[in-house]
Design a protein that fits this description.
Length: 239
């Protein structure tokens, strides 16, 4: 496998082609963005930590039956992944009320709803990634109803697996974002990343934020808090 040209230069990751048309390389950057890129900053080693966390989680999910794009970790910043045709939807899985949902519904952050909430967003930066419903997603030709059933079923399984992973580590899985794409055979798979950039992780005892909200709300210790998540994951391997 040989790294070739830059395909995509995103806010927090770059994607490169390889000499295998079915694979790409994800490179994690030391940049944080928030509020649709209104706020940006550079944090040394952030990309290294996110790469390790996301690789750990994707490997864990894959070993437990979730089809993902992750193949292998190449170095401290890069992963080899299956190439995908991205589906422009985001599924936000919410075990607790926080962030934009708390603002939208005027509910206190940290409130636990009577059921898990699944928000569907149209992944379109120019439009601000608006909420979209199932029939709109199908009417726009983004997915079929069968595709949506698979996506929601997968989101439910991922949530169950992540709760099993993080609860013993004393990390409250508040919410997280999932993205999906199609592999070269057209099969839907989980893509992108799962990390403190795309999830809300709170310490279960103190509700200390261990995620990007530390950057959004100027709480400081961004990379140190991300490293705390990684250290707890690594402690699981040493038991």
């Amino acid at each position: 496998m040989v790294k070739q040209s830059l395909i995509f230069d995103g806010n927090e990751k770059r994607v490169y082609s390889t000499d295998d048309p079915a694979t790409v390389i994800f490179h994690f950057k030391d940049v944080a963005t928030a509020f649709n890129n209104v706020k940006t900053a550079y944090f040394p080693e952030k990309g290294i930590v996110n790469n390790k966390i996301s690789a750990y989680i994707f490997d864990y999910l894959q070993r437990n039956g979730i089809h993902t794009h992750y193949i292998a970790t190449l170095n401290e910043r890069e992963q080899l992944c299956r190439k995908s045709e991205n589906i422009p939807l985001e599924v936000v899985v919410r075990n607790y009320i926080a962030g934009s949902l708390a603002d939208r519904l005027a509910i206190e952050e940290g409130t636990k709803p009577s059921t898990v909430i699944y928000d569907l967003n149209y992944n379109n930066t120019e439009l601000g990634d608006p909420l979209i419903n199932d029939t709109q997603a199908v009417a726009l030709g983004i997915v079929s109803f069968d595709d949506l059933k698979y996506i929601y079923d997968t989101a439910h399984k991922v949530n169950s697996l992540l709760l099993e992973l993080f609860t013993p580590l004393k990390i409250k899985l508040v919410d997280f974002k999932l993205e999906f794409g199609r592999d070269t055979d057209g099969t839907i798979m989980l893509i992108d990343e799962i990390s403190p950039d795309t999830s809300r992780f709170w310490d279960a005892d103190t509700d200390k934020r261990l995620d990007k909200d530390r950057f959004r709300h100027d709480l400081g210790y961004i990379v140190a808090s991300y490293k705390e998540v990684l250290d707890r994951l690594m402690s699981r391997e040493n038991k």
